Amino acid sequence: MAKPQQGETYKCQTCGMQLEVKSPCQCDSGEPTLTCCSQPLAKE
Ligand SMILES: [Zn+2]
């Protein structure tokens, strides 16, 4: 998964939950893990 950028929306393909990124990921290594229903969220 690429790092979430500001303004992007992520959606759970199973239950329809949506997450909007209000501030981008700033970590130096690794990346956030966004999951729901045991599946990674898909970028809208
Ligand atoms: Zn879900």
From TrEMBL:
Q: Which UniProt keywords apply?
A: Electron transport, Iron, Metal-binding, Transport
A GO term for molecular function:
iron ion binding
Domain Desulfoferrodoxin N-terminal as annotated: residue spans: 5-42
| UniProt-listed Pfam families | Desulfoferrod_N (PF06397)
The chain's coiled-coil residues are none
InterPro entries named among the record's database cross-references: Desulfoferrodoxin_N, Desulfoferrodoxin_N_sf
**This chain belongs to which protein, by name?**
Desulfoferrodoxin N-terminal domain-containing protein
